[in-house]
UniProtKB/TrEMBL annotation:
This protein's record includes keyword Metal-binding: yes
Domain C2H2-type: 48-75, 76-103, 104-131, 132-159, 160-187, 188-215, 216-243
Matches recorded under Gene3D superfamilies: Classic Zinc Finger
Signal peptide start-end: none
Pfam families: zf-C2H2 (PF00096)
Keyword Zinc annotated: yes
Originating organism: Octopus bimaculoides (California two-spotted octopus)
GO cellular component terms, A-Z: nucleus
GO MF annotation, one: DNA-binding transcription factor activity, RNA polymerase II-specific
Lineage: Eukaryota, Metazoa, Spiralia, Lophotrochozoa, Mollusca
Protein name: C2H2-type domain-containing protein
């Protein structure tokens, strides 16, 4: 009986090599505890590893989605504009642009957004949180995209050129905004007063003059401002003791 107990306990050892398991239990009909699980995990790892880049995934479904990055396959197409996507979730997110659905709401100001990630970045305007840090100059930013755009100032690279005047910019959005100066096109209209603007940002700032929204708050004195640039200018009155004349609209 004592010998049998020792044998039973030995079968509970954890084996890290498939061949070791086979040698230890060759000819024994009873399989060791954990042997089946080990073989399954080994097979799972082998079947969910990308043979192109070696990256591993939790399941075959995620591996299939990942492989589309290498193949360029985009099986999910938008019926409105024809744009294609790797995953169905990306298509669903894109379709909100056409439907104007904005399911993510800011509990502070009530503003709505297409994606949760945009809402998270927006909330930082209210909280003042700037988690993205520039290692070159130490400046902080609300989002990774703002940090990436800022870093181009250090490199000096301005790869986006205006074909009309030759002026260059750090990113394509600034170039598009600049081109409106040449065309005179003001595509962004205020629904309240009808005033038009070259870009969406200036329209948003203008609308705040109607709503009275002042999203940028000074943590020193509590005064609020319509734009971040006005807040920065105001902060100098605390640090340098100088006053600046400017309009908040």
């Amino acid at each position: 009986m004592e010998h049998d107990n020792k044998l039973d306990n030995s079968k509970r050892n954890v084996f890290t090599d498939v061949d070791s398991v086979a040698r230890a239990y060759k000819g024994d009909e009873e399989k060791p505890l954990g042997c089946k699980t080990f073989t399954k995990q080994k097979s799972l790892h082998r079947n969910t590893q990308c043979d192109l880049c070696g990256k591993s995934f939790a399941n075959s479904s995620n591996l299939t989605k990942h492989k589309r990055i290498h193949s360029g396959e985009k099986p999910f197409s938008c019926e409105v504009c024809g744009k294609s996507f790797i995953m169905n979730s990306h298509l669903a997110r894109h379709e909100r642009i056409h439907t104007e659905e904005k399911p993510y709401h800011c509990e502070i100001c009530g503003k709505s957004f297409i994606r949760n990630s945009i809402l998270i970045t927006h909330i930082r305007i209210h909280t003042g949180e700037k988690p993205c840090f520039c290692e070159v100059c130490g400046k902080y930013f609300f989002s990774d995209s703002n940090l990436t755009r800022h870093k181009k100032l250090h490199t000096g690279k301005r790869p986006f050129y205006c074909e009309v005047c030759g002026k260059s910019y750090c990113n394509n959005s600034e170039l598009r905004r600049h081109k409106n100066v040449h065309t005179g096109e003001k595509r962004f209209y205020c629904e309240i007063c009808g005033k038009s603007f070259f870009d969406h940002f200036n329209l948003v700032v203008h609308i705040r003059s109607h709503t009275g929204e002042r999203a940028y708050r000074c943590e020193i004195c509590g005064k609020s401002f319509i734009t971040n640039s006005h807040l920065k200018r105001h902060k100098r009155t605390h640090t340098a003791g100088k006053s600046f004349d400017y309009r908040d609209t």
